[in-house]
Amino acid sequence: MDTGTFTESLLKLSKDKREDLSTYYAGMFSVNSLKEPIRRKNAARAVHVFMTIVLNSRDEDWGRYSELKDIYDCRICANAIAQVCVKGIMAPVSKSEFGSDLVLTEEEAGKILGRLDEYWQYLS
Questions:
Q1: How far apart, in whole angstroms, are the C-alpha atoms of residue 116 and residue 14?
Q2: pLDDT, tens digit, for every residue of 36-47?
Q3: Helices (H), 29-124
Q4: Do the beta carbons of residue 13 and residue 50 sit within 8 Å?
Q5: Taking residues 72-100, what's their average pLDDT?
């Protein structure tokens, strides 16, 4: 899945917060990167922004996810990765690794969007 398709899927979910969210995504991703496959770490960042802006979700303690060996490979992504894991939106690829640089598959993107919608219902 490419970055543009994934962020557009999040924008569709965001409803009345679409403009606020699109401003954040415009700052996060360059126009050139929109056609590139989205990496799991960037998907985590995009989802974390969605949870913060649209759902007003607060960050939680990282718990056991602070021990993922690749969580600090991208300092800008570390908190986002931990938050999507803690909230059950994205799962690590193994007990010790998030899989930050792996490309997000269509199937995984669908599961993330479904979990995000469930999380939204839970908060409502």
A1: 11
A2: 999 999 999 999
A3: 40-53, 78-86, 106-123
A4: yes
A5: 96
pTM for the full model? 0.92
Close Cβ partners of 13 (under 8 Å, ≥ 6 residues apart):
50, 54, 113, 116, 117, 120
DSSP 8-class letter at 55: S
Q: Which string of b and e fits 14-41 if b means at least 16 CB within 10 Å? A: beeeeeebeebbeeebeeeebeeebbbb
Both structure tokens of 5:
């398709």
How buried is residue 123: exposed, middle or buried, by Cβ count under 10 Å (0-12/13-18/19+)?
exposed
Tokens representing residue 71 in the block: 């969580």
